[in-house]
Amino acid sequence: MTLAARKIRLIIMLRQAGITDPRVLSAIELVPREIFVPEIFRDQAYENVALPIGHGQTISQPVVVGLMTQALQIGERMKVLEIGTGSGYQTAILSKLCRRVYTVERHRPLLRDAEARLEQLGLRNVTTRYGDGSEGWRPVAPFDRILAAAAAAEVPANLADQLAEGGVMITPVGTRRDDQRLVRVTRDASGFKTEEMVRVHFVPLVPSVGEADNGSEHRPESGPESAVPGTAPPSRSEGGAQ
Ligand code: SAH
After folding, report:
1. How many CB atoms are closer than 10 A to CB 73?
2. Comparing C-alpha atoms, which of 19, 129, 30, 141 is closest to residue 80?
C-alpha cells in the first residue's frame, strides 16, 4: 500500500475515533508525518502508533494528536504554546491552525531536527526554544492555548498561570504510565476549571534540560543556558523509552 493510501486509511480511522473537526483533519492531511519519523519507520508513518524518535522519546500516536488538537479548539488568530517539541510533528499541525506557535524542547538534538523539518515544510509561524518547558515561556505569555506533550504528576501550575482569560490547556497528568489521563484546563474570569479526558501514555515532563548524546541528564546550576555538555554535574539518568 502506498503512503498516500495509508494516509487516507488513517484519516478514516481518526474520524471513527471522533476526530471530526474539518480544520484538524485537513491539518493532519497536509502534514507529511513520514518526514517526522526515523527512516526505518517510514512505512509505519500512517499507522495509528507512537514511534521512537531517539533520546527515549516518541512521536505521539496520530489519534492522540488529533484528540488533543481538536479539544483545544484553536482559532486562526491564536497564540499557542507547546511543551515538548519532540519530532516537531504536533508543532507542524498546530502551526497550520493558529497565528503563532511557541514550542520548547529540552533535548537539543531533537529540537534541531524538528527545526530543520519545519523549515523544510516552509512553516514560518513557529518560534522554538531549547530549555525547560515546565517553566512555560513567561516573556511571551499569556497564551490562548497550551499543549503539553509530556506528563507531570499534577497540572503544571506554572503553565496554567500563563493561560490568557478564555484560554485552554491540554496536558497529560499522571506519573505512572499506566495511569495517565489527558486533562483540559479552561481559564475564565472566575478562575480555572479542569476536566479529565481519555487515558493516554506520555513520556514524563522532566523539569530540567537534557544533554542528549548518551541519554544521561544534566541539571544546570543557573538556568538552561548553562547546560553545556560536560560542564554541569551529572544527575540521575531518565527518559528511558516509554
Ligand atoms: N509532540 C511530539 C512528541 C513529544 S514527546 C511529537 O509530535 O513528536 C515529549 C517531548 O517532551 C520529548 O521530546 C521530551 O524531550 C519533551 N520534554 C519532556 N520534558 C520537557 C520539559 N521539561 N521541557 C521541554 N520539553 C520536555
Report:
1. 14
2. 141
- Tell me which residue has its CA closest to atom 13 in ligand 1: 86
Output the pLDDT for position 242.
32
By annotation, the residues acting in catalysis are 60
pLDDT of residue 211: 62
> Which single residue is written with the C-alpha cell 495511569?
179
Contact 102, 81 (CB under 8 A): yes
Distance between CA atoms of residues 121 and 226, nearest Å = 31
90 CB less than 6 Å from ligand 1?
A: yes
DSSP H helices, the chain, are 3-16, 22-30, 62-72, 89-97, 108-120, 157-160
What are the tens digits of pLDDT across the range 193-202?
999 999 999 9
- Ligand 1, from 83, 130, 209: best to mutate by most atoms within 8 Å of Cβ? 83
pLDDT tens track for 50-79: 999 999 999 999 999 999 999 999 999 999
CATH, domain range 63-210? 3.40.50.150
0.85 cut: is pTM over it? Answer: yes
What tens digit of pLDDT does each residue of 203-232 get?
A: 999 988 886 443 333 333 333 322 223 223
**Residue identifier of the C-alpha nearest atom 19 of ligand 1:** 205
Q: Supply the residue whose CA is at minimum distance from atom 17 of ligand 1.
A: 84
Per-residue pLDDT at 75: 98
Domain residue ranges of the chain, discontinuous segments joined by +: 63-210
